[in-house]
Amino acid sequence: LLDTKTLLAQSLEEHASVVREFEGKLTETSQNELTKQEFEIKLRENQQMYEAELSERRSMNEKSQQDYETRLNEIRQGHATELAELSANIEAQSSSKVTEYKRKAETYISQVKKQLLDEKAASLEKQQQTITRLEESIVV
After folding, report:
1. What gap in Å lies between CA 136 and CA 126, rounded to an integer?
2. Is 128 inside any structural domain?
3. Can you give the pTM of this predicted structure?
4. Residue 19 sits in which domain range?
């Protein structure tokens, strides 16, 4: 009977030891599960923050790209307008110079014609005088 009590006490003690060991492991497992859940929550939070930051950066990048393209188009349009104005100005100056050269050429041609007509008239008069003198010398 004493042996049985002793055996039972030992068995009960071993059983209590195993229960304590399992309770310790259960507590550790529970703590690990909580830690795992906390980690997963933090992981989701970090992923959400990363996605939000990535989205914000993409949005900023797109806005910068749009601003760049808008500014580039404004500069192109400005240069095109300036080029058109310069071309029109040069064309007007060129047309003005052509008109001026044409007027000068017409004036020169008119002067040359007048000079040729004057020389022709002088030559005709001289020839007429010569003819008249020769006729007078023949008649006499």
Report:
1. 15
2. no
3. 0.46
4. 1-100
